[in-house]
Amino acid sequence: MLENLEEIELVGLLNKIKEIKTDGWLVMQICATKIGENYELLYTFGKDYDVKHVKITVEPGVHVPSVTDIFPAAFLYENEIHDLFGIEVDGINHDYKGGLYRTATPAPFA
Amino acid sequence: MASKRSVIPFGPQHPVLPEPIHIDLVTEDEKVVEAIPSIGFVHRGLEHLVTKKDFGEMVYVAERICGICSFGHGYGYVNAIEHIMDIHPTDRARYVRTLLFELSRMHSHILWLGLMADAFGFESLFMETWKYREKVLDMLEAATGGRVIFSIIRIGGLRKDVPDDVLKGFLPELDNIVEGIKACEKSFLSDPAVLSRLKGVGYLSKEDAINLSCEGPMLRASGVAHDNRTRGYAAYDDVDFEIITSDEGDSYGRCYVRIQEIYQSADIIRQCIEKMPQEGIYVPIKGFPNGEYMTIIEQPRGGACYYVHASGKKFIERMRVRTPTFANIPALAKTLQGCDVADVPILVVTIDPCISCTER
After folding, report:
1. Is the ipTM of this complex over 0.90?
2. Is residue B45 within 8 angstroms of chain A, CB to CB?
3. Which helix (H) or strand (E) holds B128?
4. Is the omega angle on the peptide bond into residue B330 within 30 degrees of 0, that is, cis?
5. Of A15, A49, B26, B184, which one's alpha carbon is 20 to 30 angstroms from that of A7?
6. Whole-angstrom Cα distance, residue B210 to residue B222?
7. Sequence-distant (≥ 6) Cβ neighbours of residue A90 within 8 angstroms
8. B45 and A76 in contact by Cβ < 8 A?
9. Angle B206-B210-B213 (CA atoms, 0-180°, nearest 5)?
10. Listed residue (B334, B285, B325) closest to B305, CA to CA
């Protein structure tokens, strides 16, 4: 029921995000959802009042590339995904290395 | 000779901060050259409760994300569920929701004005503005029974109606509040001492505001006419309003936008009262939500996203709330670059940070 949703493979993520940036979209949010044993990562972009979503599904332990080279302001979302779900995101421009949220339990949403 | 760089820790405990945020200020003499924000001191994990609470009960949890924009958080979650379950609330429920949204906006913006006055050391102005905030809280209490958490919204409509005579009683109160804030406006936007703390301080260009995905008054004060209320949720399609912007891009511009939005909210409330439909307030719901949806609304501090992923069970897989403060933190770091150390407290307040929302 999410409108304008595109589900892609992890390998195509960065190229897709670059394409979206070139088209003038801006990042609105990134979040993870645990579905069974895997994780869905939902990237949401906005242009004026239009909204577009890109979704990837990753297995536990799989590293995800950071999109902060393309959208520098996305660093908080990627740190959040790491701290709450334990998903490793490689190459974040401001990597808090697990220190964004001072949670008593590591990766409490995992 | 090159200036020596020092790191000044700002927060999490600071007189200007009602809630904890920490910023490492890299300084050269009295100038900030880099600001590294840090949050997470009181993260509560409320989103995770959605996997343990009945989806109907979760409305109460969503409201408790924040004590200022609590109605909006409840609405964002409820609206996402209603879209997934194809529920259409009655017109009266839509209008009352819009009215409560705007009362919350007035409350939030007036609260911010007081905090801003306190930040630049104008305590009598702080007390004067909060006098009017109290009146808004009285109206919220008369409408819902609560002053902080309202518990009036439910999936399918409202828990209780707001009687017409109570709504009519709001009209003279709104006039009093607008008159009072107009008197305060002179101090905020014309007083030379106040202007020296706001004008040109924390400038954020239109391009930076867009590229950093800014939200709310922070975005509009940089000249970008973007307000999620124009998406038409609740009854915003049925009321007239124009997006308020400023081309100043500085703390003065943000102050101007919020003050004008207080008047605008009062006007929207008047329109809601005049046009208030007479039908019921609740549509019964059946079954469990199955699907995913993202609601985007305009909270007082800016756009907020509510993502819900449900799979036809009593418990939902995921509720994710992207709050406006979370989106505005990169812009805060940007505005701090190049500012005087003495202006840091003003700039932190200028984004109207709600750490309670951010630490949902």
Report:
1. yes
2. yes
3. helix B123-144
4. no
5. A49
6. 9
7. A63, A64, A65, A66
8. no
9. 140
10. B325
Fold of A5-90: Beta Polymerase; domain 2 (3.30.460)
As a whole number, mean pLDDT of residues B303-331 equals 92
Q: Does A55 touch chain B (CB under 8 A)?
A: no
Count how many pairs of residues, chain A against chain B, have C-beta atoms within 8 Å: 84
Residue with tokens 């979302």: A77
Specify the pairing of strand B5-10 against strand B290-299: unpaired
Domains, chain B, with CATH or none:
42-335 (1.10.645.10)
**CA-to-CA dists, residue B104 to B24, B88, B89, B150, B278, angstroms:** 32, 23, 20, 11, 23
In chain A, where the domains are located: 5-90
Distance from CA of A73 to the nearest CA of B (A): 6
Q: What angle do CA B42, B45, B51 make, to 5 degrees?
A: 170
Substitution target from B208, B307, B358 for chain A, most A beta carbons within 10 A: B307
pLDDT at A31: 94
- Number of Cβ within 10 Å of residue A78's Cβ equals 27
Per the rule left: phi > 0, alpha: psi between -120 and 50, beta: everything else, B291 is left
Reduced to 3 states, what is the DSSP secondary structure of residue B7?
strand
Question: Which DSSP symbol is given to B166?
Answer: H
Task: Please tell me what DSSP assigns to residue B197.
Answer: H
Nearest to B276, CA basis, from B178, B171, B177: B171
Looking only at the bridges linking them, the beta strands covering A50-58 and A5-7 are parallel
Reported pTM: 0.94
pLDDT tens digit sequence for B97-145: 999 999 999 999 999 999 999 988 889 999 999 999 999 999 999 999 9
B8: number of Cβ within 10 Å: 13
- Mean confidence (pLDDT) of chain B: 92
Q: Are B246 and B172 in contact (CB under 8 A)?
A: no
